[in-house]
């Protein structure tokens, strides 16, 4: 059983929008043991849609297509699919009432006439009612193959996948083969160095167990994937190899499941019953945003101070004027006072402080763009460190966030 994902939209091809739908769909199909063998992004053109369907039908059993189901002129998926399957579009009164109800729930009494067209569906399709948007999905099953046509809006696509498509696939496509995935997350070690450290363990893996490296800035997630008919044996053997990796690089392992770094930190703070605050200059609140995006963070995160100017550093956090004069805003003495000031102001057990030159301007000969100072303050000590990143502002900020969280983890554990 194989799947293909087709995403439609000129905005995907010209780089205006990033295709997140394919990755999400692939993960959820994989959980059903349906591997995705091909992903295609195509333009809003009828010939491109029909060609993509023709090619997908030749090589896949499950074809998921997203995009082009809206009410505007460039939404041509329905007419293209109707042409491909040799069918017509028919008015579906139940769909129209459903769309009208969505407008009423949104407090809009009059539905635009253009939305009436969304009640036109494929004559030979099963309608996938969309409770979170006005564009219904459609599904066609023929010759042992399953086609699903879904809106391109991510939250609408996810609703229809979770509530309409995946339940049907679970009914129809059952496999005797089990797929087992297990993860671990490392920080503070690069992908190449990590691969060198665990190369002999990877070489010893049997053919039915694979190891994938999933690097991001400042961290690498490892995924073990095993496939076979004996789930218990797969799980036992895969976890045995995973435990070997954990033991080998234990100083860098922060999670042995699929949680994010921030989730691990929030859980650890909560378990230890300690609190956190941040004092951010160059990161502009990015660290606190990462932490507070995790459910339950309110129990351990007390507050954040974004102090861009020297005056704010002095007024809000109590940084000494002499420290700024002698060492500058981007210095370890300054971030030390910022972190300790945040702990004092917010009454927390720990605090992170950042100050740096994110770029593209502002650098000097002694402190070029990419120079960042970070401090982490706890009850017994304050640690500081200077980093030298590159010239990309967004990446410098992201690296600073991860570096700060890694320093926090190291002092916390």
From TrEMBL:
Gene3D superfamilies: 3.30.70.2860, CinA-like (3.90.950.20), MoaB/Mog-like domain (3.40.980.10). This is CinA-like protein. Coiled coil: none annotated. It comes from the Bacteria. InterPro entries: CinA, CinA-like_C, CinA_C, CinA_KH, Competence-induced_CinA, MoaB/Mog-like_dom_sf, MoaB/Mog_dom. Residues 4-172 form the MoaB/Mog domain. Belongs to the CinA family.
């Amino acid at each position: 059983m194989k799947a293909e994902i087709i995403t439609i939209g000129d905005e995907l091809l010209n780089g205006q929008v990033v295709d997140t739908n394919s990755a999400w769909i692939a993960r959820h199909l994989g959980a059903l043991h349906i591997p995705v063998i091909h992903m295609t992004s195509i333009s809003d053109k009828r010939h491109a849609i029909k060609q993509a369907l023709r090619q997908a039908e030749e090589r896949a059993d499950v074809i998921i297509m997203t995009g082009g189901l809206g009410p505007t002129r460039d939404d041509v998926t329905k007419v293209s699919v109707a042409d491909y399957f040799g069918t017509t579009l028919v008015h579906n009164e139940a769909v129209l009432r459903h769309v009208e109800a969505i407008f009423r729930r949104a407090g809009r009494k009059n539905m635009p006439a253009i939305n009436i067209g969304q009640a036109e569906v494929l004559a030979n399709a099963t309608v996938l009612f969309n409770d979170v948007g006005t564009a219904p999905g459609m599904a066609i099953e023929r010759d042992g193959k399953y086609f699903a046509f879904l809106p391109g809006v991510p939250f609408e696509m996810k609703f229809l996948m979770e509530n309409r498509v995946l339940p049907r696939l679970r009914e129809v496509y059952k496999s005797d083969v089990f797929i087992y995935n297990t993860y671990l997350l490392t920080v503070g070690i690069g992908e190449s160095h990590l691969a060198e450290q665990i190369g002999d363990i990877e070489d010893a893996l049997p053919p039915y167990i694979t190891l994938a490296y999933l690097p991001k800035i400042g961290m690498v997630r490892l995924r073990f994937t095993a496939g076979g008919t004996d789930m218990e044996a797969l799980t036992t053997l895969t976890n045995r190899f995973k435990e070997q990796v954990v033991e080998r690089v234990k100083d860098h392992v922060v999670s042995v499941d699929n949680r994010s770094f921030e989730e691990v930190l929030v859980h650890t703070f909560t378990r230890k019953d300690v609190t956190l605050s941040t004092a951010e200059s160059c990161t502009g609140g990015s660290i606190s945003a990462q932490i507070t995006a995790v459910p339950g963070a309110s129990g351990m995160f007390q507050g954040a101070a974004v102090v861009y100017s020297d005056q704010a550093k002095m007024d809000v956090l109590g940084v000494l004027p002499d420290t700024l004069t002698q060492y500058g805003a981007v210095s370890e003495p300054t971030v030390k006072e910022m972190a300790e000031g945040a702990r004092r102001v917010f009454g927390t057990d720990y605090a992170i402080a950042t100050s740096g030159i994110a770029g593209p301007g502002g650098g000097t000969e002694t402190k070029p763009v990419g120079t960042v100072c970070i401090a982490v303050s706890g009850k017994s000590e304050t640690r500081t460190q200077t980093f030298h990143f590159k010239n990309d502002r967004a990446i410098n900020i992201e690296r600073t966030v991860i570096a700060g969280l890694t320093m926090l983890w190291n002092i916390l554990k």
